[in-house]
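Weekly modeling sync, notes
Attendees: S.R. (lead), two postdocs, one rotation student

Agenda item 3: backlog of single-chain predictions. S.R. asked that every request posted to the team notebook include the full sequence so nobody has to chase files. The rotation student volunteered to paste the first one in as an example of the format we agreed on. Action items at the bottom.

Example entry:
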Amino acid sequence: MFHNPNEAAAVGHFNRREALEHLLESYSAPKTETVTVEQYKKWTPAKRMAFNDRRSARIAGSIVIETPSIRELKLECRRAAQFANRAVGRMGVILTGPATMGKTTAALRVMVGTFQRHVQRYPNWRELGHIPVVYIEIPSGANGKRVMGAFLDFFGEPAPNRMTLEERTRIVTSILTASNTSLVVFDEVQNLSGVSSHGRFEAAQSIKNLMNSVRSVPLYVGINLDKTAFTNNDLGAQFSSRSRLVKLGKLDISTPTGQSLWGGVIQGFERQFGLLNHPEKTLLTAENARYLHTRTRGSLGALSRLLSIAALDLIDADDPENERITIEQLEDIKLDLTTERELLGSKDNVGVSRRGKGARRAA
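Predicted structure, as returned to the notebook:
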């Protein structure tokens, strides 16, 4: 998990070097503390509060369940790293899917793994001036200068408007080379589709030229990139021909394999939450699993938010004997607008609306 309440750098997003390095350095695999209701009730209020703070921090710190797609993403990035030092024929990875699929969270898992491998290889990476991982978001209305400006912002370098694209690119290339950067993550790449064809071409060309000049693995992250000009026009063909595509999508439960995967995801969340009176498989009845799939439309990101909010609410209530997620509780939790709209517009909404009695009986 990612948590250190004493560090201001952990607050906010991680498109700045200090914030990202703090986030990656402070990562530790989430560990569930096994405590019984009886033990908890014997503790002092201070000990209970500390325990609850640890549990809440772990849950709020983005519990990640490794699906086959996430494992595929990590594998493809590792493979691309094997080719990073070649003069030609280097590889990148494109991570795409609809909104709310957890793409940035998945990319963060790759950043953690890459950072840890880099540190193992170069224990004195700080003294060497390395920046193992770089993360930028493609700004809306991006052109080449703005993309390179996002890099300079990440590094904390000035980017005066009078500085040309060539000057910015030269500085960024120099920093990435000197920093021996292993991975460069370009997030929100779909923003390239919202600009003029000239601006889009310039931005994409500047990214291509940059990554041709450095030995870092590029990971491109965005919404439905396989359906945009980023991979489909003449310039896009250069990205698609040099990158492996990994898609994060909604999980399907129409097959026994899909049902097993969905059940494993639910059980994974139950295991990692560490609620005091919620045994694993509590939510794994056929009706409950179906309810959760319909309610979230099979989105792993939506499922994570739904169950995490429920777990945090139960911890906050400090009622250990009732620390069990129920469908009744889930019915009163709102999800993101995209998921709610999909549910309201679906025929599956019958009996599963927010106040649907049929869904409550499924508990």
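Discussion: group reviewed the output briefly. Residues 1-12, 353-363 have pLDDT under 50 and may be disordered.
Action items: rotation student to repeat for the remaining queue; S.R. to check formatting next week.
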